[in-house]
């Protein structure tokens, strides 16, 4: 009740609305993720004076940016934030089919439900889940990364598993550029000082998706039109049948995304990729074929998962004082600057802060839905922009996003070089999503494996720790089951042919 009274004071309601507005706008712009804007807004938050209001404002910016980040992914194939890369896999094909309005509606509803379910779970289970998060050590994180890598088959089309594996290996190799956490020696930098910190994720994401899209628009004058030959925005609503089909997906991925968000170091990006992979693997054969071509389930899964994970990341932050991602690390710094000590005593010593932040998330998700749904017809009109304006628009935000991400002009050269390579790979029908997955999971895989090997004097930790072994078994099943299902389908088809 203390948290309820604090959250619904006039000042804090204005903070929620202001944070959601800023976050949504920033999330829509490629490259300007929540980390950048929260870092900029820390002095503003400190000047407010009230720790509850300051944290509510920053939290609103965080989940607002995740909520709004889907817009550019769907409309121009340029992910606004890292956690919406998976959204573009089916969101952009839907926009190309003239269903941009429907795609934005599904993204908004999935984000709202994911964030709301995450807030409910956070309120009920935060104290208990903080102890679960402590069960995860380096061996468990290593096994979790293996689970993520084992899901690459979900991002491969028919007959493309070998290509997906190859692209994953390329992503893992790109992740080794720069200084390793355990070995402070530059690797594969070829003497270029600007590469010592490694490649930026935003730069790579833009090079894999946005820049090739601009090149495709240049090479194909008709690509800026939808498949129906017109850019008229229609079909904004989802039917009852579509709602029934995506409802279980949203429910499952809201819970799974929240649980992944609870784990320090996992975050919304991994939750979105795993959510997409799980839903594709458990889908029927007919639905599987639609993934990557404009599936509403493929759009709803990552959007639900990343917003629920965003809420879940507050569990280790508030109850343990452990940041679960780069953004929550900045939020931790803001808490310390406000003389608030996050940890097990926070909900006892300062309940008005702990519960006000959680309760404000309910209001924040409602505000985001009210802000986004009425604007969908107008936002979707970006697709009606003439090709001569759309190409410079995509190129400008792509280059700006890469530069701001690292504040380094060398990133622009890297972006163009990788973008040309990505365009060639797309012409050769190579899936690019596995490359990004390998790049994201590579550093965490390497670091946690090295620490585990040092702690346990060898790979014995894989069988000694039950949780690690369980995760590795899940990874093995994710690899074996798709192959088993494909073999059964081939045998069944062969039997039908023999019967004919």
Task: Provide an overview of this structure.
By secondary structure, the protein is mainly α. The protein has a domain at 2-137 and 200-409. 73% of the residues lie in helices and 1% in strands. The protein has helices at 2-7, 10-28, 34-48, 51-68, 70-76, 87-96, 100-133, 138-150, 161-175, 201-219, 240-262, 267-282, 285-290, 296-312, 314-320, 326-337, 346-349, 351-372, 376-379, 387-406, 410-427, 433-456, 461-464, 466-499; strands spanning 178-179, 186-187. Strands 1-2 form a two-stranded antiparallel sheet. A hairpin with a 6-residue loop joins strand 1 (178-179) and strand 2 (186-187). Helix 6 (87-96) packs antiparallel against helix 7. The longest helix is centred in the N-terminal third of the chain and has 34 residues, at 100-133. The protein is globular. The mean pLDDT is 79.
Main features:
mainly alpha, two-stranded antiparallel ribbon, about 500 residues
Helices, strands, pairings?
Blueprint lengths: L1 H6 L2 H19 L5 H15 L2 H18 L1 H7 L10 H10 L3 H34 L4 H13 L10 H15 L2 E2 L6 E2 L13 H19 L20 H23 L4 H16 L2 H6 L5 H17 L1 H7 L5 H12 L8 H4 L1 H22 L3 H4 L7 H20 L3 H18 L5 H24 L4 H4 L1 H34 L1
Antiparallel strand pairs: 1-2
């Amino acid at each position: 009740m203390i948290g309820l009274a604090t959250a619904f004071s006039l000042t804090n309601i204005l903070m929620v609305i202001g944070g959601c507005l800023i976050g949504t706008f920033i999330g829509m712009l490629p490259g300007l993720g929540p980390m950048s804007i929260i870092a900029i807004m820390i002095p503003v938050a400190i000047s407010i004076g009230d720790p509850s209001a300051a944290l509510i404002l920053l939290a609103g910016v965080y989940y607002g940016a995740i909520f709004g980040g889907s817009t550019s992914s769907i409309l121009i194939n340029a992910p606004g934030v890292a956690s919406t890369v998976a959204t573009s896999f089916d969101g952009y094909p839907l926009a190309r089919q003239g269903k941009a309005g429907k795609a934005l509606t599904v993204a908004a509803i999935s984000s709202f439900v994911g964030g709301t379910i995450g807030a409910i779970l956070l309120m009920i289970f935060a104290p208990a889940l903080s102890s679960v998060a402590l069960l995860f050590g380096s061996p468990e994180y290593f096994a979790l990364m293996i689970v993520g890598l084992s899901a690459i088959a979900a991002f491969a089309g028919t007959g493309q598993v070998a290509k997906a594996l190859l692209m994953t290996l390329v992503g893992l190799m790109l992740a080794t550029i720069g200084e390793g956490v355990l070995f402070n020696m530059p690797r594969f930098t070829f003497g270029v000082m600007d590469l010592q910190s490694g490649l930026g994720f935003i730069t790579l994401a833009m090079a894999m998706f946005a820049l090739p899209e601009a090149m495709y628009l240049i090479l194909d004058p008709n690509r800026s039109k939808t498949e129906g030959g017109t850019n008229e925005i229609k079909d904004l609503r989802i039917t009852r049948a579509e709602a029934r089909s995506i409802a279980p997906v949203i429910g499952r991925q809201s819970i799974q995304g929240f649980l992944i968000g609870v784990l320090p170091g996992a975050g919304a990006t991994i939750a979105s990729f795993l959510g997409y992979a799980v839903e594709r693997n458990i889908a029927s054969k007919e639905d599987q074929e639609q993934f990557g071509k404009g599936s509403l389930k493929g759009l709803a899964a990552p959007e639900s998962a990343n917003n629920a994970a965003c809420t879940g990341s507050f569990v280790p932050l508030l109850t343990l004082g452990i940041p679960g991602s780069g953004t929550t690390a900045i939020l931790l710094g803001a808490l310390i600057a406000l003389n608030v000590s996050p940890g097990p005593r926070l909900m006892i010593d300062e309940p008005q802060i702990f519960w006000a932040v959680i309760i404000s998330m309910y209001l924040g998700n409602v505000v985001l839905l009210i802000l986004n749904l009425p604007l969908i017809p107008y936002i979707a009109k970006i697709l009606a922009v003439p090709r001569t304006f759309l190409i410079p628009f995509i190129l400008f935000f792509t280059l700006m996003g890469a530069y701001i991400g690292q504040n380094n002009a060398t990133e622009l050269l890297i972006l163009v070089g990788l973008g040309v390579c990505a365009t060639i790979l797309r012409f050769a029908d190579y899936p690019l999503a596995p490359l990004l997955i390998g790049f994201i999971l590579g550093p965490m895989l390497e670091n946690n494996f090295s620490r585990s090997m040092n702690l346990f004097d060898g790979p014995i930790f894989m069988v000694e720790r039950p949780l690690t072994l369980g995760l590795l078994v899940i990874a093995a099943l994710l690899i074996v089951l798709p192959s088993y299902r494909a073999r059964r389908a081939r045998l069944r088809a062969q039997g039908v042919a023999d019967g004919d």
